[in-house]
Amino acid sequence: MNGLGVLGRIGQLARSGEAFALATVVWRQGPSSSKQGSRAIITADGQLDGWIGGACAEPVVIREAKQVISDGNARLLLLGAPDQFGTAVPEGMTVVPISCQSEGALEIYIEAVQPAPHLVIVGGSPMTRTLAELARALDWSTDLLSTGEFGPDSASGRSMVIVATQGHGDEDMIERAVAMNPAYLGLVASRRRGEAVLGYLADRGVPQDQLDKVHAPAGLDLGKTTHEEMAVAILAELVQLRASGALTEVPAPRVARRTELQRAEAADPVCGMTVLAGASGLPLEHDGRTYYFCCAGCRRTFEEDPDAYIRAVLK
Questions:
Q1: Looking at residues 97-105, what average pLDDT do you find?
Q2: Most buried pick, 104, 151, 209, 290, via CB within 10 A?
Q3: Which residue has the higher pLDDT, 272 or 300?
Q4: pLDDT on residue 279
Q5: How confident is the model at residue 202 (pLDDT cuts 50, 70, 90)?
Q6: Domains (ranges, CATH) in the chain?
Q7: Buried-state track 92-122, b at ≥16 Cβ within 10 A, e below 16
Q8: Hey, how many other C-beta atoms are within 10 angstroms of the C-beta on 233?
Q9: Which tops the pLDDT comparison, 165 or 274?
Q10: How far apart are alpha carbons 259 and 204 in whole angstroms?
Q11: What are phi and psi of 297, to 5 degrees?
Q12: Confidence class of residue 80 from pLDDT cuts 50, 70 and 90?
């Protein structure tokens, strides 16, 4: 996959609500199988789509990309031989030594791409329509649903749910919503009405720890407001919580589609590179233990004097 294929995959992942990382080759020194501008997408489960380089670069990029997805901090990597760059490395760049047979080097920028926030609004009042319009103006994925449309598949753990049914089924909608365990659940109602709804659900046996997560009333307290201003107050609270990291969630990795990606990683005993502990890692058994390598050259070097490298690994 390359070019438009990578861009199409980006759109597909964005629509699915899955976080991923985008790796781009910004500089290369030949010989290298990669090209400047080459791109690859890496998902949280370690699946790579696109082209970023050969057997030496790919495991390192996958490892670093998974960390970028986890912490959200972009990385600029410099991949090459340990003695290739000396002190000429710019501040802020991460140097990853790789010892392949070629003498090439790569500079790769890895950035996290988080899915657009997902907002589900239940109700049909002027306020809900205003809230939906405002959220869409922020490019949030927004669903405005009636009580009949709001079902088990309407929200997930990364969704924000606003129930604004104005007394028409508040209890039922909140009970449905808490079962979805959304990142945020708010009820548009007065404080007194909110207490009554939550008290009713507690009597029905809804777990208290789930009810404690319900924001009732939803939104920042701006005093007496119009319907339009109430929509602003709700959106402002959601923006505030997201900015503080309170609603941040990295979706659980999907089941890998490639069997090899489900296997553990290992360190090449010759050069120290991270490699996949599978068939592509050129496995070699020695004294009852299996070792993996980044390339045939490292494997041959190990075969010539395995004890020397085993001692280095055990230190």
A1: 65
A2: 104
A3: 300
A4: 81
A5: very high
A6: 4-113 (no CATH), 118-243 (3.40.50.720), 262-314 (no CATH)
A7: eeeebbbbbebebbbbbbbbbebbebbbbbb
A8: 19
A9: 165
A10: 46
A11: -60, -45
A12: confident
Residue 160 in tokens: 């924000």
Beta-bridge partners for 113: 20
Contact status, residue 185 vs residue 215, Cβ threshold 8 Å: yes
Q: Residue 30's CB: how many other CB atoms inside 10 A?
A: 11
Q: What is the mean pLDDT of residues 85-104?
A: 68
User: In whole angstroms, what is the distance from residue 120 CA to residue 286 CA?
Assistant: 57
Half-sphere CA count of 35, side-chain side, radius 13 A: 6
CA angle 12, 247, 111 (to 5 degrees): 45
The mean-pLDDT minimum among 131-135, 259-263, 303-307 falls in 259-263
The average pLDDT across 221-250 equals: 86
Q: Contact 162/188 with Cβ under 8 angstroms?
A: yes
Q: Give the pLDDT confidence score for residue 299 in this predicted structure.
A: 87
pLDDT at position 101: 53
- At which residue do the structure tokens 């395995």 appear? 306
Average model confidence (pLDDT) for the chain? Answer: 84
- pTM exceeds 0.85 for this model: no
Residue type, 50: G
